[in-house]
Structure prediction request, 323 residues.
Amino acid sequence: MASMIKQAGVVYHLGVKVLLVRFSSLGDVALVSSPIELLRSAGHEPWLLTFRPFGELFLSDERVKVIEAERGESLARILARVRGRFGAAFDLHGKLLSGAVVALSGARITGRYKKRIIARRAAVWFKRTPRFVPVHELYCRPLKVGLRISEPCPLPRLIPPANGLALPDNFIILAPGARHPTRSWPWFPKLADILISEGLSIAWVGLEGEGPPAVPGLDLRGKTSIQELLYVISRARALVSGDTGPMHLARCLGVPVVALFGPTVPEFGFGPMPGEGIVLEKDLRCRPCSLHGERPCPYALECLARISPEEVAKALRKLLTVV
Prediction:
């Protein structure tokens, strides 16, 4: 049961049952592991409301309990499962549905994370790189204010299953897909050839149909559950990806990444933190061109095409020497 103490005129909340609402997508939900850890370290009880199947990210995680909703499920049905059950609720999605759930949850303490949308849109309009504030830190801010938490925001961390698929030794993961085609790097097949020639094994992850149709190495695209994907990534030496969900999973699993940024920029909050990997990007006047890479490119994706496979292979070699 939650309690309160008062020190120097400030009320501190203890042992609160807290609902975190983030419905999608894969990488964004993975980053919620940071406020989950913050709540646990402060003595609270975190719960996560998300869309199926993203709750699978936390099947092996005893830090949090998960409520999964179906896409398209009505607000009334969702509220029937959460209303009156939580002392605090926080909207970590910033959408109409997530905001309504928090507002109508009956929680006494509520808050909403600020996306820095003005700074990000200004970067697109005026081509000025915004100050880097990682998204997981933005997730933590309303919790620290609402629950008077003084601990620093921890890095996001996921817990993979202990067992999984049979995998090759000494392998690198390539994740060629992206939600928007303008975020897909075109040289993954050439990179794979370079890595194989250097004695490395390759595993491909993502959705079925993402990336080149025929690839060398172990092709797991469309063949893994989220739990299996976590296991595969956790066993890799490194991962190469664009600004995508697998890149964030690797970060959360302590696997070094080579992150390829084109229409978006790491300063939107989704880039690797220091020590998590290497960012490759080109300084072009047209960048960033959109918030999520949703706009068609009139320049033949020059921002990504100019990142050569040799450059990526070199970055990987640098990572592997320190892993």
